[in-house]
Structure formats: C-alpha cells, structure tokens
Fold:
Amino acid sequence: MPITRPTPQDTARVIFGQAPRGLKRWAVVLLCLTPVVLAGYALQQTYFFYTHYGPVAATYRPRPFWALAAFFGLLALVVCLRIRWRRKSRLIIAPSGLNIDLPPKAPLALSWDEVESIQVIAARGLASRPSPRGRIILILRNGQRLHLDDRFPNLLLLARELQRHLYAERLPKMRQQWEAGQTMDFGALQISSHGITHKRHQYPWREVQGLSIRQGALVIELHHRHKPIRIPVHRLKNPDLLLWWLHEEAKR
Structure:
C-alpha cells in the first residue's frame, strides 16, 4: 500500500467485530448441521436394530454414531461461542488512544504512547491477491503483543488508520531527535540525520542510493555495493513510518 501522510481523524471511531463471511460462514453452517445429521442417522439405526435385533443391539450398534454426534455437537458449540465473542468485539480508536474489547478477555485501554510498534501480517489469497485473513499485531512498550484478526472488517485499512494515529503521536519527538542528531531505533535498522546503522555498520546518507520495500524486505541500495542490503520487514519496527519519514520529513 502507498505511504500516507499521518493525518488521523479528530473524533473517536467505533469498530465492531463481525461474524465469519464467505466460505467460513458456509463451513460453520456445515459444522452445525453435521451433529444433527449424525444424531438423526443414529436414531434411525437405533430404531432399526431395536425392531430387528432387540434392545441389546439397539444399545451398542449405533453407539459410534451417537459418539460422533456428541463430538461434533460439542465442537459446533465451541465455534458458536467464539462467533458470539467475535460479534461482541469492539475497537474504539481516538486521538488520545484506543480501547480494545476482545471477549472473553478483559477490555483494555491504551494511550498511543504505550504502543511501541504496529506489525501487519497480510495473508495472501488465490493468485497472490491480498486476503482479509491477515493480522495486526500491536507491540506494547511492556513487551505485550495484542493480536487483531479478521473479526474486524477491512483489516488492512484498519492497520493504516492505527498507524496514522501512532505516527502523528510520534512525529514531534522524531523531529526533535532528527534535529539533535540523535539515533532513532527501528529495530534492525537505526537512522539519524548523519546516516543509517545496520549490524553495527554505519553508512552516511551520501552513500545511500535508495530505500524501498520489496517482497517483504526493506532494500537499501548503496553506491559502493553491488548487492543491496535486505532486511526482513518483520525485523523492523514500524517500517511504514520509516519510509514515510525518509521520503517526506527527512527532505526538509
């Protein structure tokens, strides 16, 4: 997705969880019908063996089908409870922070200052097209990791909205660090107004030819190196903020 300037909304927005859609919805329907079909077949077998072979056969012969019906019934109950929790999930995004309610867990209120980074894991569907089955991982300063899955609609757009709020909160401090020549930590890469640092190797900005994200990695092209440096995105903190900063703010 393209880099976007961090201009978050000034008002709070509430996002509710949703039940599974598409193939997942039909899979749930099929799962709920399975114990009903098995119980009906077991009942028919019980009647058949009772009328033809007596009560002993009617007790033991259909038992596997009753067991399967009970197993799938319990499984369907668990899935339905999870769907109910999904529908009760709620996310409130505000300029001051966010409130996360993911039943059966207790609700959690966070300020943007408590969020260390936002990691987006975008799953791929058929023909390598983006799929809504990805995840958003909020990494807090205390080390806790909060997962937001596809229970929320438009997951990638939601990730962008969260990033814009986080970036807007971070920018004033980043500008101060940049002007003071201090190092800003982005995980496996550190930057400052003097240059970039990777694996304890420092490269002045005059040696950097370009930076971009390709195939899940940050690619750093240097003038004196034929082979670019590749850093996996999952090893970076807020890679989108890094690129936005380098393309927009660092030019000022």
Q: What stands out?
A: The mean pLDDT is 85.
